């Protein structure tokens, strides 16, 4: 059994199933509809299909509502980036440094992935998968003079992201829409840079998620996934410890998260798609000051009054913040970056594979 199948599954949410096709698999990048899904509905009993579809809908709706409800509060206190900051380990940081740390996170991720700043090599087209209110998109569009399209499940976020783009004179460069990362509204081979900053943890089917990232990447394009993972399992382990599952469960319930996986699981998935230059690193030590700072900001007068006005889902999320700190401290939660490149000859490879198997 692969570590992927052993990945932790919280009881309430989705159970992705690996589909074993009887035909030889074509190129991973060739994706006619019947090859795209990693869930294989025809092999599932009708009731299981209904439960899974219903679970998927519940999760999507929960995520959309959660961000519809909480994004204005977050923006008022933290600005337009809804992700961890990147800090020098063991440094003491002042509150005003946190926004700079969030921008630094974007810079560090681009640099880790080796995204070029040379005018002839820098990305011209970018997709921001799980874009929030578009902070990364606007930053990246300005940095590289690139066109950027963002997708989110939250209509409130998409609307706000477009409004901010217009206000900053970027409406011709960046645009945002409501769409599902697991079924992206883009053709194959589109984007020089595929960017997913802290959205992967929300994806109930990690295999489908990664397939979609690879599908929309242009040949030679870079894929960057920055996400929450659980620790890698030891070779002797079948699953996480019961206390670890219990802690993750509580976090899942508060933040609308499905099954977690490890960084090694992501690497395995990327390898299975023949993606190149796969790199992964644990950045947990660089993000340590983040959650204590979020808690401190929630405990200010502005934070508390905004929180009380925002709604139950947001309050539930705020109450779960100490659990994230506990997860990091106990080495259960890992803040991971995983990057790779789609082969330059992916299109030719697709055509050859198609001819060979059709
Ligand atoms: C923590 S926020 C990160 C936002 C943004 N990347 C940033 O760094 O500011 C998570 C984002 O993932 C999006 N998301 C979660 N599941 C998604 C899905 N299945 N399809 C599209 N977006 C999704 C949410 O709507 C939200 O915008």
TrEMBL record:
InterPro entries documented for this protein: Methyltransf_11, PiNMT-like, SAM-dependent_MTases_sf
Span list, region SAM motif I: 126-135
Sequence segments annotated as region (SAM motif II): 189-197
Ranges in coiled-coil conformation: none
Region (SAM motif III): 216-225
Sorted UniProt keywords: Methyltransferase, S-adenosyl-L-methionine, Transferase
Residues annotated as domain Methyltransferase type: 127-225
SUPFAM superfamilies: S-adenosyl-L-methionine-dependent methyltransferases
Membrane-crossing segments per the record: none
PANTHER family assigned: MAGNESIUM PROTOPORPHYRIN IX METHYLTRANSFERASE, CHLOROPLASTIC-RELATED, METHYLTRANSFERASE
Family statement drawn from the similarity comment of this UniProt entry: Belongs to the class I-like SAM-binding methyltransferase superfamily. gTMT family.
Protein name from the UniProt record: Methyltransferase type 11 domain-containing protein
């Amino acid at each position: 059994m692969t570590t992927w199948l052993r990945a932790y599954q919280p009881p309430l949410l989705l159970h992705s199933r690996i589909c074993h096709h009887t035909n030889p698999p074509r190129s991973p990048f060739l994706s006619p509809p019947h090859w795209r899904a990693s869930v294989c509905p025809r092999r599932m009993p009708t009731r299981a299909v209904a439960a899974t579809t219903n679970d998927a809908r519940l999760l999507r709706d929960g995520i959309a509502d959660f961000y519809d409800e909480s994004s204005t509060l977050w923006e008022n206190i933290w600005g337009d980036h809804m992700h961890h900051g990147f800090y020098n380990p063991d440094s003491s940081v002042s509150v005003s440094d946190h926004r700079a740390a969030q921008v630094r996170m974007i810079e560090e991720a681009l640099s880790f992935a080796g995204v070029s700043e040379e005018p002839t090599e820098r990305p011209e087209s970018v997709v921001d998968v799980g874009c929030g209110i578009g902070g990364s998109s606007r930053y990246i569009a300005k940095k590289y003079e690139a066109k950027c399209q963002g997708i989110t499940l939250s209509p409130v976020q998409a609307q706000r992201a477009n409004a901010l783009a217009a206000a900053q004179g970027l409406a011709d460069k960046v645009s945002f829409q409501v769409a599902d990362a697991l079924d992206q509204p883009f053709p194959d081979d589109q984007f020089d840079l595929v960017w997913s900053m802290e959205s992967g943890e929300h994806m109930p089917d990690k295999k489908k998620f990664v397939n979609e990232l690879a599908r929309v990447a242009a040949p030679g394009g870079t894929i960057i996934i920055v996400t929450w993972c659980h620790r890698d399992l030891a070779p002797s382990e079948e699953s996480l410890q019961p206390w670890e599952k219990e802690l993750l469960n509580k976090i899942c319930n508060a933040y609308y998260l499905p099954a977690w996986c490890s960084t090694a699981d992501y690497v395995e998935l990327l390898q299975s798609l023949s993606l190149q230059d796969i790199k992964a690193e644990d950045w947990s030590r660089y993000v340590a000051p983040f959650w204590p700072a979020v808690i401190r900001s929630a405990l200010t007068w502005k934070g508390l009054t905004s929180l009380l006005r925002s709604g139950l889902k947001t309050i539930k999320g705020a109450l779960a913040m100490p659990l994230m700190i506990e997860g990091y401290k106990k080495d259960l939660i890992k803040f991971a970056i995983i990057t790779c490149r789609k082969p330059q000859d992916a299109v030719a490879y697709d055509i050859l594979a198609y001819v060979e198997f059709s």
